[in-house]
Task: inverse folding
C-alpha cells in the first residue's frame, strides 16, 4: 500500500527557499524560536521542515522534535470531542 496520493493532498505549493522543494506541508513553529533560528537570514522565509531542522540543529544542540497538530478554528472548540470520539465509538 502506498500513501503517495494521500501525501500529495497535504503538500503546499510554495518552494522552500533553501532546497527549493515544493513538497512542503503547511507548518510553523513559535515566533521566538523561528526568529532565533532565522536571525539575519534573507529570502522568502518559506522553509520545508527538513531545512528548518537543519538550520535549527546547526545553531542549537537539539535532541529531537515534538509534533503537534493545528486544528481548524471551527473545530478548536471541540478538540476534546475530536480526540475522544474514537473512544466513545468503540
Ligand atoms: Zn527545504
Result:
Amino acid at each position: 500500500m502506498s500513501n503517495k496520493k494521500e501525501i500529495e493532498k497535504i503538500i503546499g505549493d510554495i518552494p522552500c527557499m533553501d532546497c527549493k522543494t515544493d513538497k512542503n506541508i503547511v507548518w510553523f513553529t513559535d515566533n521566538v524560536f523561528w526568529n532565533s533560528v532565522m536571525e539575519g537570514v534573507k529570502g522568502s522565509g518559506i522553509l520545508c521542515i527538513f531545512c528548518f531542522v537543519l538550520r535549527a540543529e546547526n545553531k542549537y544542540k537539539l535532541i529531537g522534535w515534538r509534533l503537534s497538530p493545528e486544528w481548524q478554528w471551527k473545530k478548536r472548540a471541540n478538540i476534546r470531542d475530536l480526540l475522544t470520539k474514537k473512544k466513545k465509538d468503540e
Remarks:
- DSSP finds five helices and no strands in the chain.
- Residues 16, 18-19, 21, 47-48, 50-51 surround zinc ion (CB under 6 Å).
